Amino acid sequence: MGCGHKDDKASLASSQIASFSHQPHQPPSTPATKEVWKKGGRMFSILLAVHLALLACTLVSSGAFEKIAVHDYDVFFLLTVMMLIVIIWIIFYLVGTSRCPEAILCKDSHAGPIWLRGGLILFAIFSLVMDVFKIGYYSSFYSCLSAIKIIYPIVQAIFVVIQTYFLWISAKDCVHVHLNVTRCGLMLTLTTNLAVWMSAVTDESVHKAHSKLKKNVTEEVFKWLLKAGMRSSSAEECNCNSQICQIFKNGYFWLYPFNIEYSLFASAMVYVMWKNVGRFIDHHSHHIHRLKFRLFRRTFFVGIVLGLIILVSGLGVLVLYEVQVNSSTESSKKSQALTMYYIFNIVCLGLMSLVCIGGSVIYRFDKRDMDRHKNPTRTLDVALLMGAALGQYAISYYSIVAIVASTPRDAISALNLTYALLMIAQHTFQNIFIIEGLHRQPPKEDHKHESHQKDLYGLTFVNINAVSLRMPDSSSTLAPSTASGTEAIHPSELVRSLTAPRKMNWRRKFLREISMFLLLSNIILWIMPAFGARPQFDNDTELNFYGDSMWPAIVDICLPFGIFYRMHAVASLLEVYIVS
């Protein structure tokens, strides 16, 4: 990324720096020279991303079946090449922007908030552990495997490290040099993350299908079924008899959910960067709210306590479900596990729905203004919430049709129907609550109070008695500061502002309690399906109605979106909590 050449037929840097040099202390407002045909550059990068995504999707889906002459190492080869190209481009971007002072003229304060980047780092750490387990597993029998099986996790680990560092320091960038190259590089990065996500989802689904098949049939029948049509990893043909090999194998499959979430988090952050390429931000209308995250202040602890109870109870239900369903062949224990699972989720979803309705009612009394400024991050959050919810909507409606049309109906079917209906209601009410919370401006009381103190004194400690003694009579006021534009303030009002504790009204307190309860509840509702509690595969109603091939395909396609919805809702609820 050299500083001399600028694309898109516009010398953006020279004109902008010339205009900014006359007002060095003022942020950029409306650019004098706009980019020529901004939509054309975006269109080209989108077309590139679409073609790469379709190619990756074709290979991944084709490699899921043995009859198609596409193997898993073909998929790994494509993903490895894509990740290597992205690594080279990220290094090129970081070096180029660091050498060009005019490369990044402004930053988007809403992009890449600290809690989103913190979540990205958390998932990146678990993804690295997964890659270590993969390397250890495939190294146990490298003699009978293709070399790409070992190269792929090594390259993926390097990719995760470099991309995480890139997003940590560059998530807020509004780049103004080499616009088309930057857009294409970001779209390539986004497509690579989506391709890795598709591959991970497919591998996890195939692994769970093999595990369930192994539990129900003998070893000879299992091998015959693999040859008949189901994909078997090339590692299945090698012997993994040692204990350390089994630990590596089970370990990296248990860590797949974290890698899946990492890819989706990175894709969302890269998309916001892509939207901000060539963007100029008017800081007079683009308000920056510096909010402090205080978890254990100004709260009744009701939401945290109830959320922790739900979280711990859900973990217990998950353990019992895994033991009784996956480790036992008795139908009675399976029915007990399903009943326990459905009852817990019905209670949890019912409480969450009522809480969301209550939060929406409280918003009716909230006097804060709506934030109508342009915000690509918020727009993406809303789109992801609405889009990811479609996956769980689809599963729920398929279940409702199967339960209503099937006979006979038992207690588990009734619980399943209630669970499906509450799942639709909870997603709907929660989306309404989150979207309305994201569009609310932060409260103004705190800002007024802080500016009140800082503008008048700027002192760390104030002796209230001394201030009171030096105050003039109540009929007079402090002289206004015409230079700084500070309004005149009555002395008694000043003393009250210094001595009175900062109060939070009941609406904000209730909204914080609701946000924290929903946040913890969404965490357990993400953990349960992500780590194996999937009644859609264990309930016979849908399997008998749609068949053994159609229903698993529906769940495999839609469930990853439902799992991602929960984790994205956690990040959005954390933002709602901080803004409240």
From TrEMBL:
Keyword Cell membrane listed: yes
InterPro entries recorded: Otopetrin
Membrane topology value: Multi-pass membrane protein
TM spans (from-to): 44-64, 76-95, 115-138, 150-169, 253-274, 295-321, 341-363, 383-405, 510-529, 549-565
Listed GO MF terms: proton channel activity
GO cellular component entries: plasma membrane
Keywords carried by this UniProt record: Cell membrane, Hydrogen ion transport, Ion channel, Ion transport, Membrane, Transmembrane, Transmembrane helix, Transport
Location (main, coarse): membrane
Pfam families the UniProt entry points to: Otopetrin (PF03189)
Subcellular location: Cell membrane
Family classification: Belongs to the otopetrin family.
Record's protein name: OTOP2 protein
Organism encoding this protein: Rhynochetos jubatus (kagu)
